[in-house]
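Handoff note, outgoing to incoming analyst
You'll be picking up this chain. Sequence as last confirmed:
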Amino acid sequence: MAMPQRDNYIEQIRRLEGLIAYAEEQQDWEELERLKEQLRKLMEKM
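Most recent structure output, in case you need it:
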C-alpha cells in the first residue's frame, strides 16, 4: 500500500473515531451503529 493511500486511510479512521465518540456522547445510537459499520468496512479495505 502506498504511503499517501495509507495516510488517507488513517485520516479517515481518526475522523470516524471522533464522530463515533461524539455520537456516543450525544447518545445517538442509530448514528453510532452507522459509523461503526463504516469503520468496519474501511478496516476491511486495509
